[in-house]
């Protein structure tokens, strides 16, 4: 895991209990709905594999895969993603904190360049926008 580089941290408060937010990230049927993903497979356990095909605006399909490196139910997911041309996983940490019927979610990553960081931060904000809309419709 990269320990030096270019970081980002995004924190939001979601209008849903932590169990509902956890299920949205860890159940394939729910994840597919809010993340604009198809062919979602989630084996949510340390070392478990995940894969999906993201459908980005314009219809481009982007296959993604990786594995979970840490799983603490309703609290933390550390998700590694395979990146073409890199041997090590790109790691994203997702932390959840319950606050009654709300959940504070924090996404963070350390990347190797400003461009990678900016692209990943943009993508993470898009994911959180989709998650927020999904939870408000539930």
Automatic annotation (TrEMBL):
Highest taxon listed in the record's lineage: Bacteria
Segments crossing the lipid bilayer: none
Boundaries of every Activator of Hsp90 ATPase homologue 1/2-like C-terminal domain copy: 16-135
InterPro entries in the record: ASHA1/2-like_C, START-like_dom_sf
UniProt record similarity statement: Belongs to the AHA1 family.
Name recorded for this polypeptide: ATPase
Organism: Streptomyces niveus (Streptomyces spheroides)
């Amino acid at each position: 895991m990269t320990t030096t580089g270019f970081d980002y941290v995004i924190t939001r408060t979601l209008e849903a209990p932590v169990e509902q937010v956890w299920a949205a990230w860890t159940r394939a049927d729910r994840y597919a709905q809010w993340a604009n993903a198809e062919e979602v497979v989630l084996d949510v356990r340390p070392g478990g594999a995940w894969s999906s095909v993201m459908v980005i605006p314009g219809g481009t399909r982007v296959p993604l895969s990786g594995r979970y490196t840490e799983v603490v139910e309703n609290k933390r997911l550390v998700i590694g993603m395979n990146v073409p041309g890199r041997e090590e996983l790109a790691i994203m940490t997702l932390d959840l904190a319950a606050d009654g019927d709300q959940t504070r979610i924090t996404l963070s990553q350390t990347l190797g360049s400003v461009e990678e960081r900016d692209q990943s931060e943009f993508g993470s904000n898009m994911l959180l926008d989709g998650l927020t809309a999904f939870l408000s419709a539930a």
